[in-house]
């Protein structure tokens, strides 16, 4: 059981600095692959707790405790529950082989918190540290319960203009439009995903630059397009591990490929864990 020091959830954030607007159907929702993908996106703006459970009494007690704590946290967390029996691949993707267990997800990156049961005091201690880390990353948006929250939004005028540029094969214009969108709306995950796709399209439609780094990036792109996402990510991770001068560029390319592959895909979850070990 991890213990990061006592903190009271009610005093962790200045409410005037917390933006609102995300809607969830419950404080702790049952998750499958599609739901997890949505919550990985949600974790860009709101801290997410991922609870791995089974049919044991221990899981039942922890589920109830976390539900109660989330309900009392004034929307500072969203929660997703993964049943290790019905969705073992999702638990394996985050390196969990035994329930119950709890992870935090910030900006798409899962981090183990503890395995087994916890008291309310211990849980509050851990969540206090999570909120502190989330505040450093500006992940402070709250959520509220809305039973019929819309799953998708209609494309904004800005997105429609960028999409029209892609359809007209004006990729440089589409790239600039999405870059502008991200500056104006930093939490627009759709714009980030579209920008990553457009940049890949531009790279594959132009002649590669000379140099070892350019060749590495080109090879990773080709592996990705060929359907071998794991090999693409591993090639960049291997280069990152052995690099001194080009680490920032390689890390940025990795983050772009994470978006292209999908934040909840096993290859990305494994790559994020390996990258985290090399960074910290």
Question: Notable features of this structure?
Answer:
disordered N terminus, five-stranded mixed sheet, globular, two-stranded parallel ribbon, 280 residues, alpha/beta
Strand content: 5-15%
Number of helices: 11
Query: Could you say which overall geometry the principal axes of the C-alpha atoms support?
Result: globular
SSE pattern, N- to C-terminal: EEHEHEHEEHEHHHHHHH
Terminus-to-terminus distance: 21 Å
Specify the structural class: alpha/beta
Roughly what is the average pLDDT, rounded to an integer? 85
The whole-angstrom Rg is 20 Å
Level of helix content?
Answer: 40-55%
Major beta sheet, specifics?
5 strands, mixed
The side-by-side strand order for the widest beta sheet comes to 2-4-3-5-6
Give the tally of β-strands: 7
Low-confidence stretches: 1-20
Question: How is the topology of this model organized?
Answer:
Blueprint: E1 22-24, E2 28-30, H1 33-42, E3 48-53, H2 57-71, E4 78-83, H3 88-93, E5 101-106, E6 109-115, H4 120-136, E7 143-145, H5 157-167, H6 171-184, H7 189-204, H8 212-225, H9 229-242, H10 247-261, H11 266-279
Parallel strand pairs: 1-7, 2-4, 3-4
Antiparallel strand pairs: 3-5, 5-6
Helix pairs in contact: 5-6, 6-7, 7-10, 8-9, 9-10, 9-11
Provide an overview of this structure.
The protein is of the alpha/beta class. It is built from 11 helices and 7 strands. It has helices at 33-42, 57-71, 88-93, 120-136, 157-167, 171-184, 189-204, 212-225, 229-242, 247-261, 266-279, and strands spanning 22-24, 28-30, 48-53, 78-83, 101-106, 109-115, 143-145. A 5-stranded mixed beta sheet has the order 2-4-3-5-6, sandwiched between helices. A two-stranded parallel sheet has the order 1-7. α9 (229-242) runs parallel beside α11. The chain is globular, with a radius of gyration of 20 Å. The model is unreliable at 1-20 (pLDDT under 50).
